[in-house]
Specification:
By secondary structure, the chain is of the alpha/beta class. It has 14 helices and twelve strands. Helix 10 links the parallel strand 10 and strand 11. The model has no long low-confidence stretch (mean pLDDT about 95).
């Protein structure tokens, strides 16, 4: 089959090619760099979360039958448009449940023990001093986990390892977790009682801006906030406001709203009709990056050798299955 593979790193080409024999594979960094001929020939498209696939893109690929995203999330794909064209969409349901949870805790520990501040002080000023670097224990603190899927479950296990008190919110509570002693609460109660809040929910029409200007003041004053899920789960303006008012004492963010524009700001500025909200969010992102109580990383929570190999191996499985007449790991409705 004709496969169009949008790669993120050069080494992927050899890895994927060697495991997809018998297929004609065209590699590119983005859809914008694909020739018209390869777009028209493509029967399978493989993308990562940084590759947006919208209705106008699908119009350029008349023979496309499958989109295989190398991710658990699929909000970067116009699913409605794909279904209208009878294009199947498959994903990687599980690859980094421990990987992302470990990174979320890395962000939390960096904040709680002021690791970045201490390192920066030594690096920039050469001061070997503990002054103003007093942190706080995680033991005994209440951590609110939003979303109790695979990653959320690993966060719960790790939090208990630190002897934290765990509460959780999920619109679909899991009976086995309740039976094991996990305490589910309403979203409002989680905001009110948590010393630490960590987001592990998918981004969809129900979760978009689940934390916003309307409920940000329900948070316990001095809460620490971690987001390794999706930037759109929290309204950027609300996060900015909560930091200014001291509601949020510190934030660890691996994701941002409009993060795709952060790597291509000139494209956004040169757009003849840019969206005002996007421009505001990009400006706010720069504010967050420079904020002394915020740690921002460039969407790398998934990025370990083991997790990347699991992602690629599952994607290869999905593509080979489709070529053989079977659909594996179809996205949920």
């Amino acid at each position: 089959m004709n496969i169009l593979y949008l790669h993120k790193e050069e080494w992927e080409k050899e890895y994927v090619s060697g495991r997809l024999p018998g297929h004609n594979i065209a590699f590119a960094e983005s859809l914008e760099k694909v020739s018209e001929e390869n777009l028209k020939k493509a029967e399978i498209l493989s993308v990562f979360v940084c590759h947006s696939v919208q209705k106008e893109d699908l119009e350029k690929m008349p023979n496309l039958k499958l989109i295989a995203t190398r991710s658990t999330g699929f909000d970067h794909i116009d699913i409605v448009a794909a279904r209208e064209k009878n294009i199947e969409v498959v994903y990687v349901p599980s690859y980094g449940e421990n990987t992302v949870a470990e990174f979320a805790f890395a962000l939390l520990l960096t904040l709680s023990r002021k690791v970045y501040d201490a390192h920066n002080r030594l690096l920039e000023k050469g001061l070997f001093s503990s002054s103003d670097l007093q942190g706080f224990d995680l033991k005994g603190k209440i951590i609110g986990i939003v979303g109790t899927g695979r990653i959320g479950l690993n966060m719960i296990r790790m939090a208990k390892g630190f002897d934290m008190n765990v509460i959780a919110y999920d619109p679909f509570p899991k009976q086995d977790l309740i039976d094991s002693g996990l305490r589910y609460v309403s979203f409002e109660e989680l905001l009110q009682k948590s010393d630490v809040i960590s987001l592990h929910a998918p981004l969809n029409e129900h979760t978009y801006h689940m934390i916003n200007q309307g409920n940000i003041h329900q948070m316990k004053k001095g809460v620490f906030f971690i987001n390794t899920a999706r930037g759109g789960l929290i309204e950027t303006g609300a996060l900015e406001q909560a930091l200014e008012q001291g509601i949020i004492a510190g934030a660890g963010l691996d994701v941002l709203e409009e993060e795709k524009d952060m790597s291509d700001e000139m494209s956004l500025l040169n757009n003849p009709s840019p969206k005002i909200e996007e421009l505001k969010n990009v400006l706010a992102n720069h504010y967050l990056i420079r904020h002394p109580r915020v740690i921002v990383t460039p969407h790398i929570a998934f990025n370990t050798t083991e997790a990347i190999h699991r992602i690629l191996d599952t994607t290869i499985l999905n593509i080979n299955a489709f070529a053989g007449g079977e659909i594996k790991n179809k996205i949920p409705n």
